[in-house]
Request: fold
Amino acid sequence: MILIVDDRPENLIPLKKILEREGYMVHTATSGEEALKKIIKKTYTLIILDVQMPGMDGFEVAETLKLSSVSRDIPVIFLSAVKVEKKFISKGYESGGIDYVTKPIDEELFLLKVRNLYNLSVQNRQLIEVKDRLQKENTIRRDTEERLKETVEQLEYILESLPQIAFTVDSSGNIDFMNSQWAADENLKDMFSSVHPDDLEKAKSKWIKAQKTNTVSQFEVRLKNKPTEEYRWFLFRAIPVKKRNIDEITWVGTFTDIEEQKKIEKQKDDFLGIASHELKTPLTSLKAYFQLMERILKSTENIELQKYMEKMHEQIDRLKFLIGDLLDVSRIQSGRFTFDKTSFEFEPFLDNVLDNIKEMYPSVTLKKSGGAAIKLYADKSRIEQVLLNYLTNAIKYSPERKEIIVESLVKDSNELEVRVTDFGIGIPKEKQDHLFEKFYRVEESAIRFQGLGIGLYISAEIIKRHGGSFGVESELNEGSTFYFTLPLNGTHA
Ligand code: ADP
Reply:
């Protein structure tokens, strides 16, 4: 939009026409004062100013325009009856957007000057807009950086207040903060520099895997305590933090000192090992004496005595199983859990185990489904131990409905799967992940049913050591299916 300012309409109208013919939008004003009022309300691209006007003359209007940031950069073409010295009109007017045309007007020259200054003004405005935008973006970026810095500082305060060693890792995997629980002289760049040589490989591979998969990483490592040169056990735990809007992952992590916990755990394990071993010796003698007694008493006709003998037998067997389980736990802990693998037919073996169960629990209905006519290469008595554990649990945790389904099948011709289903109390979903852990018992049922919480732990260890897998599917109050698989590795018939 162009504004023409001239006090004489006979000048104004033809100029307006010339410009409109060229496609420009044109406003007019007949005095300097009117022009200023219009300029306040509207942004013009170019102003054509008559120099000689009553009241404010053209130069005074131009002087006023440069006082305001809104109008300072609008180019001006002066119209003058006499030749105006350029030096005079450009005084104090530095934008460069200035020119003059003498009357009578040479139309061609006039249009050339208008076009030049008009285009210059448009470009100028665009430049100003870009500059403004950049300035705004800069301010936003600076604010964001400021806020980010504050958040980071806050996080560092929080991490500093923790009793654990706490750290953050940047998106390239380098430590960028470590709290002062970590010895100050430690090399910040490498958090594994103090890890025990025996734990180093495992720790590094777990950490690298977590970084690749962006998943929580947790494991135990021994770290050297610099002043004492002693190693202590720590729990390493790091979680990935995804930055909003950015595809970058950083990490926040801690090392928690679990040395005392570890010591207590070890004392407990040692005690368990010693106690179960010590209990086994008198139990073996008890059993031997009991058998001698049984032989002598068999000749008597005393029914009551025979009943007591039977009960005693049952209790001694129970004791034997309990001590056996405890010994197994201690063997697993000390790495002395060994296997004696042989090749055997699976179906007759399973039938035999089920027959024993029927004999022990005559009131239970056992149903067999599927079938796996295969040969297994495994430790027969250990696999029997797993089956017995699944079956006796199924009976124990089904106080109402004593029906059990045992299903066996060969999957993909390279895996045996055995499933034991009961219709008992079931297990809440959130507890199912822990069932195979050492000493774990579901609280809700722990008071009602006796047990040590190690049967499934030992079973899991046996299956793992045979290269198989295990698990549970269960609905609370409806029943459970415990299963395990064993690889056939081409050893089956
Ligand atoms: P225990 O039976 O001696 O407690 P286990 O290791 O065999 O120990 O089992 C661990 C826990 O799993 C049990 O305490 C029980 O809470 C739960 N559990 C195992 N089998 C079943 C089952 N068939 N139905 C319901 N809960 C079961």
Observations:
- The chain has twelve helices and 17 strands.
- The chain has a mean pLDDT of 89.
